[in-house]
Write a structure and sequence with these properties.
Blueprint (H helix, E strand, L loop, with lengths): L11 H12 L3 H14 L2 H4 L2 H9 L8 H15 L5 H13 L20 H5 L7 H21 L1 H11 L4 H17 L1 H5 L3 H9 L1 H16 L6 H17 L1
């Protein structure tokens, strides 16, 4: 099960690197940052906009751990669209990390034998007679829909035009459904995840838009299409309304 625990994997070395990236070579700035870290904790560094920029542009940014990079990039993409919930950013960053490992995006759990390639296949198993597996399928339906529509929107649109595949709205609908079903499952309450899943369902469109920004800027920066332009215009308009 994927948990909102990316921040828990951050180490003292991560905090040290974050402080160096923000302060650059300024001793006075470093002293101020160290005091803020002591007074307010690591979140004051993780939320500093200079850190997100430095992780991408500064040479030392290449030394960042995957949890540090994933959390900061996702957190700032969400903040740019007005989403301030750290717990939600933590969860989306965990999806980002876990689904990047081998074929984890296609399995409801690391040891599960069933491989899923479509949302329809996942939706067909949400009522699995095994309660634990039913819960995992529901959460995976939400996670997989967010992963695909967030990081690979151009692929979805290309497949739609070439092969008549489902569009992004379909992925949003199925993703919301998965998270809603997961929130309603008894195991969600047992694991303290019901509120998180309900929030992910409610804000799925915003989560997708934030990951679209990450994908466009970092994963596929040199691709251009009318669909991408429309997504970027919509994201920019949302940002301007909130600022």
């Amino acid at each position: 099960m994927i948990l909102a625990n990316t921040r828990h994997h951050l180490t003292r070395a991560d905090a040290e690197l974050a402080a160096r990236l923000i302060a650059r070579d300024s001793d006075s700035e470093r002293a101020a940052i160290d005091q803020q870290l002591t007074d307010r904790g690591i979140d004051v560094l993780l939320d500093d906009p200079r850190l997100a920029t430095a992780l991408i542009r500064a040479g030392q940014g290449a030394c960042a751990s995957l949890p540090l990079f994933a959390y900061v990039i996702v957190r700032h993409a969400l903040k740019r669209l007005g989403e301030e919930d750290r717990h939600l950013a933590d969860y989306v960053a965990s999806i980002f990390l876990h689904f990047g490992l081998r074929d984890r995006a296609h399995r409801v759990g690391p040891s599960d034998d069933q491989v899923y390639d479509t949302l329809a296949e996942l939706a067909g198993d949400v009522e699995d007679p095994d309660g634990q597996r039913s819960f995992l399928v529901r959460t995976h339906l939400g996670n997989y829909a967010l992963w695909m529509s967030g990081l690979y929107p151009d692929y979805i649109e290309h497949r739609r035009w070439r092969r008549g595949g489902p569009d992004l709205e379909y992925y949003e609908e199925m993703g919301r459904r998965g998270f809603r079903l997961a929130a309603d499952h008894r195991l969600a309450e047992d694991h303290g995840l019901a509120t998180l899943y309900a929030t992910a369902a409610e804000r799925f469109g915003l989560l997708r838009a934030a990951l679209n920004d990450v994908s466009d800027a970092l994963l596929f920066p040199d691709r251009y299409s009318p669909e991408r332009l429309m997504r970027q215009v919509t994201s920019e308009a949302r940002w301007r309304r909130l600022n």
